Amino acid sequence: MSRILVIGAAGLIGVEVVRALGESECIRASRNSGERVDISDPKSIAALFGRIGELDGIVCTGGAARFKPWGQLTDEDWTFSLANKLLGQVNVVRYGAKSVRAGGAITLTTGLASQYPAPGSAVITTVNAAVEAFVRAAAVEPSIAARVNAVSPGWVSETLQAMGRNPSDGIPAAEVAKVIVRQFREGPTGSVAPAAKV
Question: Angle 163-165-170 (CA atoms, 0-180°, nearest 5)?
Fold first, then answer.
């Protein structure tokens, strides 16, 4: 039986990833349930991998970034976003790669804002693009035996609905999870797979 760590497992997409991978194969980790981890804290990440032992792979759907108008962005918004969505996922690979068996995979999460910025997306565009660059760089490191790749979701239907917007403009979380699982199982190292409404 596989041992797959899902970081962000309590979130909207993470719940669906666990369901799609098979609940019996997943070790759930999040800030508030399952194996506790705060990916903005390198010590928390190191402690998580110290507890769980060898893995067949890691899926990270955790990591937040701020979406705010340019004139309202503060130093704290940038610091928070860089520590969470960017450095958090970088550190998942840094600390977690040695726990993943050769031939396993580490799949991170970015977002289509990396390619299609919009007003208010300066922070999230920056961190998503940086995660994608990191994936390409980590993929060529000879000491990382796992495949390292990412999935780039667009708007998620459930998020749009919660914002009072038209959910049909997005893609359901369960569909995003299918793309993540496919990328985790088959995606080439260094690749970024889109998961968005076409």
Answer: 100
